[in-house]
Amino acid sequence: MKNQGIIGICLILTISLKNVVFCLCPIRCQCNEEKLVVMCDGAGLDVVPITLNPDLRELHLARNSIKGIMTAFSVYHSLEYLDMTSNQLVALGRNNFRLQEKLHILLLGHNMISTLYCSTFDGLKGLRILKLTGNFIRELPDGIFVELVSLEVLDLSENSIDTISKDAFVGLGNLKILLLKDNKLGHVPSSSFGTLSHVLSIDLDLNNFPILPEDSFVNLANLEKLSLGSCGIRKIHKSAFKGLKNLLYLILQDNLLDSIPTEAFLYLRKLLELNLGQNYMKAIVSKSFNSLSNIQTITINSAPFLERIESEAFLPNIRLQNIIFNHNKKLSYIDRNAFSSFTLLRAVSLRGNNFQTFSEDVLPWSDLERFDLRDNPLICNCSLSWLLHHLQTRNYSESFDFDLTHIRCENPPVLRDLMLKGLSIDDLRCHEYQTQKILTWSFAAIGILLVALLVAVLWFRQRTVNDLKIKCSTVIPDSRHENRYRMDNQLRGGTSQEREWVVKIGRDPYAGRLV
């Protein structure tokens, strides 16, 4: 009986010690046993702790010095969230996640991972988000993600990927977002996109695609957003966007395009937003966005050579609602017909351009809910009196997201840096402007009158000269004939001296004119 009591006590102690071992919370970590969440971010760990609750759901291990995982996670079968961002992981090995069927989110960004194996992600059939941002991955081999049948977001940004095998994305039937930003791709991996017909968004920013060839995205029928910023694009084939029948958002900013690729937009009938900022076009010519019948927002910021927006530049884009043209340092001209017949236009931002004035009939100012004209070198004279009246009489306090007082004058010097809204008509010198306008028109009218008078005088003089020439050509031959007749008679009937004098006159017509 005594021995049985001792054995019972030993069993109780064993069980108790066992629970203590498995539930030990590391120093500098926070363990919530009720929610089954452990926070060990920045705890100075160099290995994955294996003494936590086996039923753990969330494990945060960011900003530590962990170099490997091996079979550390085999203890935690119920894990749903794992964050190992900013550690020192060099490799993920093979089959190290095979027991994490419940894992939904796996964050492995900013480590030193360079190689992925076909069995690296085996077992992660419930994974929805995988982030491998900021590693050293160079290649995506065939079938590498084949087990990730539930994956919705795949982030491979900021790696060194230059090769993507044709079947690298096989198995990703539920993928919605693919991020390949800031890699070393030298061409659009069109063949690799063949299995991604359900993807909604692809980010290819900061790669190197000088040319977008024909059928670059032909397999992405359901794509809604495509980002191609900072890719060095110089030319876009007219069929490059073929197949993108559901595309809504297209980003082409910070490339080397010297004109609007109008023909390439032919297949983008549903496009709602377009960003063409930081390209090299000099003008937006007539019907540049001709096929974009549903476009609502066009953004062109920081285009270094953009100078003008020409007549009917946005026709027939009658659904256009937002125009954002900011910080184009040479943009100084908008044709008054550039935005004609735009009844849905609601917001216009022309901040930081080179406009010295704005015409009242360029935009439907009264219909706009928002507009931004800040940081332009405005000449505050009577030509802006309409804008002054507009700012002073309409209440924008609730609908605007910036202070209208920031619309300030650049010239004349006496008004420099003063807010336009605070000026008066007298400050704009409208009386002087009207007087100057009258004088200008008067001098112009006088100039035109003088020119007309001079032309009339010259015409009359030329006509007189022509009349004199005609008269001379008819009288002079008759006079010569009559003189010749008289000389012949004198030669026949006169003395020898008279005949000599007549002969002399015949040789020299001026000899007989002395009186």
TrEMBL record:
What transmembrane ranges does the database entry give? 438-460
Q: Which SMART domains match?
A: LRR_TYP, LRRCT
Family matches, as Pfam families: LRR_8 (PF13855)
Keywords for the protein's UniProt record, in alphabetical order: Leucine-rich repeat, Membrane, Repeat, Signal, Transmembrane, Transmembrane helix
Signal peptide positions (record): 1-23
Checking InterPro entries in the record gives:
Cys-rich_flank_reg_C, Leu-rich_rpt, Leu-rich_rpt_typical-subtyp, LRR_dom_sf, LRR_TM_domain-containing
What positions does the domain LRRCT occupy?
Answer: 376-431
**Record-linked PANTHER family:** ANTIGEN BSP, PUTATIVE-RELATED, CHAOPTIN-RELATED
| Name recorded for this polypeptide | Insulin-like growth factor-binding protein complex acid labile subunit
Q: What is the lineage of its organism?
A: Eukaryota, Metazoa, Ecdysozoa, Arthropoda, Chelicerata
The gene from which this protein is expressed is: LOC106459642
